[in-house]
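Sequence in, structure out. Go.
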Amino acid sequence: MEKGLSQEGLKILACVTMLVDHAALLFGGSPWLRAIGRLAFPIYCFLLTEGIRHTRDVRRYLSRLLFAAIVSEPIYDLVLYPCVGIWQHQNVLWTLALGCAMLWCMTMIHKPVAKLAVMLLFALAAQLVRASYGSSGIYMIALFALCLEVPEGKWALAAGLLVINWLMGSFTAPVFGLDVPVQLFAELALVPIFLYSGEKRTRLKAVSWGFYLFYPAHLLLLWGIAQCATGALCFG
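Output:
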């Protein structure tokens, strides 16, 4: 058994940090909780690129992402954006699905200019459908994929990720008297990613689907807690 974090370990970390982030978003709390949540998306981007590299059937991989995105969308709208039009925000699984389709296309072409054109096309698509993280999410997925293909790619990955997160902007958190954009804490996701052992400890489909369905499930859980809390306040 190789030392380091397994694929399942990374997935659990991504799920937990995402749960913390959405709980802080719904119920309020320290901006540091939102900072913890910044680790989730880069980990998912990395796992997506790993999945594309090792899957035997990209179509099936993409279809699972699309299914999870469709199932999650009404729950996402209900929980996080109940007073906003449904076309204003789309859940992050749509971003990952677009990223998956982009990487699939990029594996079939070899000219750098053509790969760049594909990336820009999918970045535009993410913006048009208002997918979570928008074009920045697509650029991040492409960055992970491209840096895995080159020697010493970790340094390019760290630099590129810092630039993307800086340009995304966000609210700030105080660090030693300075107001630091919370989105920059996403850079810390590279620590567990660089500790990845490449090991997948189980190939059970139930486990794989569990990670896909955690997204809508945790949103429903948070929504249920919020409803119970509201009921307790109303009838207490």
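Check: DSSP finds ten helices and two strands in the chain. The chain has a mean pLDDT of 89.
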